[in-house]
Amino acid sequence: MTSETPVQQSAGYAEMLEDIKAIAQDLQGIQELGVAQYTPIVEQIIATRSRDARHIQHTLDYLLDFACHPAGLALFKKLCRYYFTLDPVATADYVNFYREMWDSDEMGVQK
């Protein structure tokens, strides 16, 4: 049994919620920074009509980390659409990686 009063427990809960909120804001900032840094890379791949599968896949690997953010998902989809013309099988793998990572029922995300 805890020796804290309900008021102390409530204050501790509020403090914990503020900590979680700060962490979530930090994560969102990191995601936005990642999108900002990878946007020119994706644009260059598409503009130069790069066929460098290794570079494209490396970029898609990193974009998966930011695909939970709407702008990150848009960038991921843009590169997937481009890469599909070069390697549909590999692109399908990346779509499946996305689904496994971010689009699952276990995470409570609606499809």
Q: What is the rounded distance between the termini? A: 42 Å
- The secondary structure category is mainly alpha
Number of strands: 0
Q: What does the average pLDDT come to?
A: 88
Rg over CA atoms, rounded to whole Å, is: 20 Å
Number of structural units classed as domains: 1
Shape: elongated
Unreliable spans are 107-111
Structure overview:
The protein is mainly alpha-helical and 111 residues long. It has one domain (6-105). It is built from 4 helices and no strands. It has helices spanning 6-47, 53-66, 70-84, 88-102. It is elongated and about 65 Å long.
What labels describe this entry?
elongated; mainly alpha; 4 helices; 77% helix; disordered C terminus; 111 residues
Write the layout of secondary structure elements.
Blueprint: H1 6-47, H2 53-66, H3 70-84, H4 88-102
Give a quick precis of the structure.
With 111 residues, the protein is mainly alpha-helical.
